[in-house]
Amino acid sequence: MKRIVIALLLGIFLRACSSRPAASKNTYSSSSPGASGSTTSKAPAVNVGPQVLIIINNGNAQIQKDKAISDQSAAFKAVSSDFSNVASQLQALTYPASAQADAKAVIHDLNKLSYDTSQAATASLSMLQALEQTIVSDEGTEKADSDALRSDLGLPKSA
Fold first, then answer.
1. Selected residue with higher pLDDT from 72 and 119
2. Predicted local confidence at residue 39, as pLDDT
């Protein structure tokens, strides 16, 4: 039964990832720990849209690879790391003023997803069921924020 719930949660993450990037470790925050970049800067923003798409596509590819890990706990840990890595990469970009709030929201969402997936790696069956609801809610929030950022950057909405 636990394996079925874990497989279900991993399936939710993977669907979510087809429209999103990555996030943090044991706690989450709106910025990635150790990120050297910032969503704000005095330097004029270049067109970050192509960079955002590359980061998202690479993150999605890595998540697809990590879903094949046979040990479910290791898979959740790997996906958590993937979310964190994408969040850090997005954090390092400079966004135009019109996209800064949405970029911060997406980074926060990814960090929260990373935290929740890291919790799923060691959760009991009853905790996995509770986490499933949280992750589904987080997924919806991230998708909406991601679509808002894509709109800000002149990119198509996620599928």
1. 119
2. 52
